[in-house]
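--- STAGE predict ---
source: upstream dedup step, 1 unique chain passed
mode: sequence only
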Amino acid sequence: MSVSAALLSADEAPRFRTDANPDKSLPWYQIEDGKFPPPNSAHAISGELMLVDHLERRFQLRVDRDDSQQRGVWDLPVEATMLPYGAIYYHGAPAALQDIPLGTHLRGLFYFKAPNDTSPPPAGPHRRVTPDVDFKRCFQLEDDFSFHVRQQQIWKIDSVSVADRKLIATLLHDRDAVGKPKQFDLLTSTRVFQGNGFVGLESLQPGQMVQFNITWATLYGPGRILDIWVDEPS
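--- STAGE serialize ---
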């Protein structure tokens, strides 16, 4: 009985590379016509929205910097098209690409390009391309607000200086910290949502539980806050 279970488990093991199992000897999952992709088979990419073609549901993201990249491929774009069944969320609600302002930091789940896709990559300096350049089919795209709400995560403000336009916050899940505190920049144009209206930056206080969207993520620190929500009604 245990031998059969072990064989069954082995048969069920994914035969493709995933973010959770980055075995480079395995190929990334290739979408099959007429079939939904299996759970956890997509590759996560996050970045800043740079370009949108609303009619074709095509877009470009400036990919976030991370420790796996060499400096020569920092800030290069990935171009992708939403799958026919691909979902987009903005401010926690279903949306279309045209609803999302350029510059918004987004998080997406992507699949490898089709085998017959010979389209050229987005042009970069000296013909450089991001390591994620071949992930050209998007299954899900969402802003930080939608992502953290879906993950049941929330930011706690540790400190704020309106004069210096700096805000330090810690991401929480079930009251436990997710990583270390991060320092974000506030802008004169940052919108603060409270209740059914807007308030000024001076309404931001340590201890508040908030959600926010950012821009310029990973360029000069974690990012600059575009919009911030300071209470449940907002």
